[in-house]
Amino acid sequence: MKKIIYLIYFLLPFFLNSCQSISDQKSDKFLPSYKGTWHMPPTCTPNNKVPDGAINGNGDIGLVLGGKPEESILYFSKNDFWKAQNGYPNGGVCYIGELHLSAPSLKNAAYEVQESIADATIDASYTQKDGSALHIRTWCSATQNTVVIELEAIKKAIDLNCSFNLADGMGSQNSQGEENAVQWFIRKFEGENLEWPSAVAVAFSSIEGKNTKFSLAANEKVTWLLSFCSNHDCEDYKMEAIQKTVHLQKEGITDLYESHKNWWTNFWQASQVTLNDPFLEKYYYGSLYLLACCSRDIDFAPGLWGTSLTMDATANGWAGDYHTNYNHMAPWWGVYSSNHVELSDPYDTPILEYMSKGEEHAQKFLHKKGVYYPVGIGPKGFCSSMFPLTPDAMMKQYGTPNNDIENGYMFLGQKSNAVFCTTNMFMRFYHTYDQAYAKKVYPFIRQVADFWEDYLVYENGRYVSYNDSFWEVGPWEGKDWEKNYGDINPTVSLGLCRMLFKGIIDMSKFLQVDQDKVEKWNHILTHLSKIPTVEQNGFIRIKACEGGTGSGSRTSPGLGRVMMHGLLFPSGVCGVVTDSVFAHILRDEIYRWDSDTAKYTGWQDARWDNLTGGIETYFTSAARVGYDGNRLLEQLKHRIQQTAYPNLWVTQGGGGIETLSAVPSSINEMLLQGYENIIRVFPVWPKEKDASFRDLRTHGAFLVSSSCKEGNIEYIIIKSEQGRPCLVENPWNSCRLINDDGTELILDSPVLNLTITKGKEVRLVPNSK
């Protein structure tokens, strides 16, 4: 199955390229020139969270380069290698092991490493004062689960020892041997206490037939291969890994690299931004690179840390699971607008696989229809967020013997986890209007709507959400933690429910299903409780929730990240076009960030908070309400500088790959907005800063290109994938519309109402006549 997936991913860019306009095909191939660079060994590798070493991957397997010149260490992980044991922290995603390249003669050598995002390769050079050196070039093949490691001695011979070591924690069963001159290693979890078994095999050999301990002559090159296969890939996973290695001769490596390079070349053609700001571009493209390295296996989504594990996801790594109260959603928020929609393919799989358990939870624990999701899930319907199963384990982990909190599942007082899961589904739907995709996710969305239709209480002309926590509530908060239950109308729930019911009405009409439900859904949508606010010092402030004994009383009024999730991004329910008055209130809140000192709000505290969570929404939300573009870029750069690693990962403490959407989504939102069903180019980008973009994607399944130079917007090109109605905010007093066939039309209205045939494009330019 995965072979077919890899083939699709390999061929898809070629198909898409064939569908481009003639002018695009004539243009040179775009490749980002940015690289991660190191002049000293990484200091946070290994790490139980995000490592700071060079990263590479193909969407299923990944590697991280650590160690020192005298002993390089390559750490390997795979998306489908989980220990599916209930009771936190018994189970979670695990890493495979590490390859040690020992070269004692390189002690104190100069350290130079480059991570090239254009062709997804890592080059390391360790050079002694006399000019002798070892060069290492490594890459994960984009088209099969093989890692290639090329070694070359410069000027002098180097004695090397290559040894692969499996990780051995969490009770795994490990074995190793040799077959057909190939070393093999297996790490697996199996037994009655697991929901399902996991096993991964690694095959390791040298193309030149070298032993693991050998001398590399001056200017000699040696190539080592590691192939990976799991029991989820095929039944005879050990032999499959071995055969991949055996079949790759020298000629095969050349072909493998060409297909690898072609995949990445075509990946980068999907879209392009030119900001004339190398710093921002570096982290824009670097973020997309890191996500592409870990998110291509449709059957197994990447966990919190992607395929960059350097140790098992123990308790400090939250099991590396899929957190349903934003962490699992956030990595992909930038791929839709960046026109890399395919990277989000794995997102839905674990959510849909958990549906039957979600239904059971809703019925058993709340006596409600629909689905009710805990805060953390895994693949194949696995719940990664069950409390420890015994009183002793609970006491050790949380300081209380009560192992029946919330019936043993970590819902953490929040009712919004399942509706949060729909955010990406709606984003993808609106960006593509793909009927097959809508049919795939609609049953889940319908179940979420059923839950809220049953859970919300209609009283005094409005719908209210009771006993619904704004923040996570749990025993780690101290002996009186249970007093924090009981929030009323959390802002995040009210915002996400607005998104849900608007979205399901649109999707049901698109699919022509459940038309008898639209009246009820409209009633809920138009009668949801208002977003809670309070007046302070003459200003209207946003509250975390309307009332309750929990987070509503311990979160100061203002606009923090959880509120923004429900109101601005990713929900998209409050904007300058659809509700300019409320958007103005939100914009004022953001301008107060310059002076706010309350925790969870304010630029100063946002920077602090961003180190634990928030970068995924702060800057994009500010762009959506029209915050000053120059100030926004200044704050974004400052935030990147605080925690960016040399591998181009802008980190925060609350999670791993969730930050990879932050820079692309915020930059894209400054260049192009369409979430309110009206296309706006450069809505908050500083006009004095020259910039351009090609084929960014927006709502309505439109690909848009534009350029701003010397304060003037030069053109807008709109390609329509689905032939849907197209509204465009006119940036000129008058413009010319040029069709594919060369015919022209003069337009001068403030909002252009265009009809673009499916598969066609139009060009808008200022009318100089």
Summarize the structure.
The chain is of the alpha+beta class and 769 residues long.
Structure description:
This protein has 769 residues and is α+β, with helices and mostly antiparallel strands. The chain has 19 helices and 34 strands. Strands 1-6-7-8-9-15-13-12-11 form a 9-stranded antiparallel β-sheet, covered by helices on one side. The termini are far apart. 53% of the residues are buried. Mean pLDDT is 92; it is low at 1-27.
Number of helices: 19
Structure classification: alpha+beta
Biggest β-sheet: count, sense, barrel?
9 strands, antiparallel
Shape: globular
Distance between the termini: 58 Å
Percent of residues in β-strands:
25-35%
Low-confidence stretches: 1-27
Average residue pLDDT: 92
Main sheet: which strands, in order across?
Answer: 1-6-7-8-9-15-13-12-11
Total beta-strand segments:
34
Share of helix among residues? 25-40%
Radius of gyration: 26 Å
Record the SSE blueprint.
Layout: H1 2-18, H2 22-26, E1 35-38, E2 54-57, E3 61-68, E4 71-83, E5 92-102, E6 110-116, E7 121-127, E8 133-140, E9 146-154, E10 158-166, E11 173-179, E12 182-189, E13 198-206, E14 213-216, E15 221-230, H3 237-247, H4 250-268, E16 272-274, H5 278-292, E17 322-323, H6 348-353, H7 355-366, E18 376-377, H8 391-398, H9 417-432, H10 435-455, E19 457-459, E20 462-464, E21 488-490, H11 491-511, H12 518-527, E22 533-536, E23 539-542, E24 545-547, H13 551-554, H14 561-567, H15 580-591, H16 603-610, H17 615-624, H18 629-643, H19 662-671, E25 672-673, E26 680-681, E27 691-698, E28 702-709, E29 712-720, E30 726-729, E31 735-738, E32 744-747, E33 751-754, E34 761-766
